[in-house]
Design goal:
Elements (H helix, E strand, L loop, with lengths): L7 E9 L3 E9 L6 H12 L18 E4 L2 E4 L5 H4 L4 E5 L6 E3 L2 E2 L2 H9 L22 H7 L7
Parallel strand pairs: 1-5
Antiparallel strand pairs: 1-2, 3-4, 3-5, 6-7
Bound molecules: FE2/S2 (inorganic) cluster (FES).
């Protein structure tokens, strides 16, 4: 049973695999705190067995993605102040993938689909040919802008 004070928030975190339940933790509020900071605090101060995944911590790799108050978010770029609802956070694994444990989802189905979609760079020139010039105004370049922040 958790008790929330002014300086803390109640954080419900998914525990288990496909079957499991949410467990509540009282986590201290901090300025500029991200959701990934919250998960890391729980793992370091409350329960070292909590499983989750991250890598870059700067919004590039996407490995920190979790479901936060019902929406998928990259947790290292999501500030608590933007998503906390009535002093509470609920954090679960991504909803559309199998759960390995706790907040870690199995990314295998994602990468299988990614391979089938041929989401890979196939160069049209060799390293010995001059670089191709792409106009910023071209339709192809404009279309690429829609997904330019994705590392892939
Ligand atoms: S840890 Fe890489 S995007 Fe969040």
């Amino acid at each position: 049973m958790s008790t929330t004070t002014e300086a803390t928030m109640e954080v419900r975190v998914w525990r288990g695999g496909e079957e499991g339940e949410y467990e509540s933790f009282d986590v201290p509020r901090r300025d500029s705190q991200t959701v990934l900071d919250v998960v890391t605090w729980i793992q370091r101060h409350a329960d070292p067995t909590l499983a989750y995944r991250f890598a870059c911590r700067v919004g590039v790799c996407g490995s920190c993605a979790m479901t936060v108050n019902g929406r998928p978010r990259w947790t290292c770029r999501t500030h608590v102040s933007k998503v906390v609802e009535n002093g509470r956070l609920e954090i679960g694994p991504l909803a559309n993938l199998p759960v390995i444990r706790d907040l870690a989802a199995d990314m295998t189905p994602f990468f299988d689909k990614w391979q089938k979609a041929m989401g890979i760079f196939v160069p049209s020139r060799t390293r010995y040919e001059p670089l191709e010039t792409i106009s910023p105004d071209s339709a192809e370049r404009q279309a690429a802008d829609a997904a330019i922040e994705c590392i892939n």
